[in-house]
Structure formats: C-alpha cells, structure tokens
Design brief:
Length: about 110
C-alpha cells in the first residue's frame, strides 16, 4: 500500500506563488522593510522548489543533501536579513524615512 502523498505539483505551484508575490513586492514597494520581506519570500520559494525536486526521486526517497543545503541557506539568509535590517535602521536614523528613493541622498 502506497502512503497518501500530496502531489508534487501543489508544492511547485506554491513555490511559483511565493516567487510571484516576492517579485511583485520587490518591484512595486518602496518601503525598505517590505523590500526585505519580498526578498525573503523569493528565497523561501527557492527553498521549497529545491526540496520539492529533491523529493521527486523514484521509490519515495528524499535526498538528505538537499535538505541540509536548504537548512544552511536558511541560516545564511537569516544573517543576510539581519545585516539588511541593521542597514535599514541606520538609513532610517540618518534620513528619517524608509523610502528606497531616499537612499540616493546618502551619496551626498
């Protein structure tokens, strides 16, 4: 008896949905925190896609290498987000706004 499995297409559609939302946020929002959230959604979509393709092996075998790479990527992504938020706090203290267009004023 084969155990009940959710079809892989559902995971791939969810990953595409995360890509689309993340790309939309990064393309349209000018708030730096929303930009970071969009970037994180893109990264989460990539993680879900990577694990989904790793689980597509025949014989219901999941590749543990893909899972470990995704865990490492999540840790590195958390560090990148922390640095990005520190940059946002510094930019807000200097300019008093979270608008991305105001960052051009930091050059002067």
């Amino acid at each position: 008896m084969i155990p009940y499995l959710v079809p892989l297409e559902y995971f791939l559609l969810t990953a595409v949905f995360l890509y689309a939302i993340g790309f939309y946020i990064m393309a349209t929002k000018r708030n730096m925190i929303k930009f970071i959230i969009g970037l994180e959604l893109l990264l989460d979509g990539a993680h879900l896609n990577f694990v989904t393709f790793a689980a597509a092996w025949p014989g219901f075998v999941v590749d543990p290498l893909a899972q470990s790479l995704v865990i490492i990527s999540i840790c590195i992504g958390g560090g990148v987000i922390a640095v990005g938020l520190a940059f946002i706090i510094r930019a807000y203290n200097l300019r008093g706004s979270l608008d991305i267009r105001k960052l051009n004023e930091l050059r002067h």
